[in-house]
Amino acid sequence: MGHVLPWLALHFCIAAAGTWLARGYALRQQLMDAPGERRSHSVATPRGGGIAIVLSLLIAAIWLGWRAPQDRLWFGSFAGGLVLVAGVGWWDDHRPLSPWWRLAVHALAATLLAWACWQSTGAWIPTVTAWLAVMVLVNIWNFMDGIDGIASTQAALCALAFLFVLDGPWAWLAGALFAACLGFLPFNFPRARIFLGDVGSGALGYALAGLLAVAYSRPMPAWWLILPMLPFLVDAGFTLLSRILRGERWWTPHVGHVYQRAARRFGHFRVTLAYLLISSVTLLLIVGMSNEGGGAVQFAWIGSCFAVTLALWGWARKGL
Q1: Which candidate, 42, 8, 48, 50, places its Cα nearest to that of 184?
Q2: 26, 46 contact by CB (below 8 A)
Q3: 98 and 177 in contact (C-beta within 8 Å)?
């Protein structure tokens, strides 16, 4: 514990100082998200603050890769993919890109992480899982980053779950992610003075995908680590599916997610806390299930939590 607290404090300070500097840069460069019918905010707000979280994670990955030679390939691939995802997001924050170009870069980052997984395990299931995790989580965190505090608080809770379950250098990386989210949060919640931007939302999704890939590549994969992500997975996934079925341009910005509809009625603060509460319950389940090694038990809990989350989503969507 004596070494953990300085590590967490370091990455909290890197993220906090970096976000403060990023806000000044965004104001000078006029990198602003203006209000509009496809936005959930009502005041022009700087964007790109997530670059501070990226810096914190890169420092952590480089340091941990140097300290743990046996995991150097993993950390090198993780850092390379993070640079790709954050880089295309940073570019998009300055000069909007085609979503298909962004998706191509995300696929390249996913392939880099999957290659590291294959080199380490030689198994197809964790390798394919790593690739899919990047493609899904990078875009889901981008979709769900629409109101004050929601993306960073959810990422912090997920990082806390990884910190509890993983060991060795990967637990330290999860701790860095957790602390960096907390360092960014005062600038983004309860009232946003800067947004993550695509550079930050994509980086959060990628970091969680990397930790998930490591967890799933182990002999006894902790499948229930997906539980804290369920509120985001359900809201983003089923909203996207409904838009596709209605023939809408699903890749364009919109305000059709349940969290966005709820924010218009109840405000950003309450909705972010509601999602935080749901994910906190799943975090408690992870603590309770940490001694359950049976895959059948894990999948039963995952299925039950998914059903409950989906029911809540459907009930909220109908009411809103």
Answers
A1: 50
A2: yes
A3: no
pLDDT per residue as tens digits for the range 145-193: 989 999 999 999 999 999 988 989 999 999 999 999 999 999 999 889 9
CA-to-CA separations, 214 to 150, 218, 219, in angstroms, rounded: 25, 7, 11
pLDDT in tens, 63-80: 999 999 999 999 999 999
Q: Which residue has the tokens 């983004």?
A: 188
Going from the C-alpha of 204 to that of each of 43, 122, 134, 158, 247, the distances in angstroms are: 24, 27, 10, 10, 29
Picking from 212, 234, 237, 230, the residue whose alpha carbon sits closest to that of residue 282 is 230
- Do residues 75 and 65 make contact, with C-beta atoms less than 8 angstroms apart? yes
41 CB-near residues (< 8 Å, 6+ apart): 33, 35, 147, 148, 192
- Contacts from 95-101 at CB under 8 Å and sequence distance 24+? 99/251
For residues 199 and 187, give the distance between their C-alpha atoms in angstroms, rounded to a whole number.
Answer: 16
Between the CA atoms of 256, 154, 295 and 214, what dihedral angle is there, to the nearest 10 degrees? 110
Is residue 146 within 8 Å of residue 40, measured between CB atoms?
Answer: yes
- The structure tokens listed for 14 are 């890197």
Cα(222)–Cα(156) distance, rounded to whole angstroms? Answer: 18
Per DSSP, the three-state class of 45 is: strand
Centre a 10 Å sphere on the Cβ of residue 284 and count the other Cβ atoms it contains. Answer: 10
User: Which tokens hold the place of 61?
Assistant: 């990955």
CA distances from 272 to 67, 96, 131, 143, 152 (A): 37, 27, 29, 15, 10
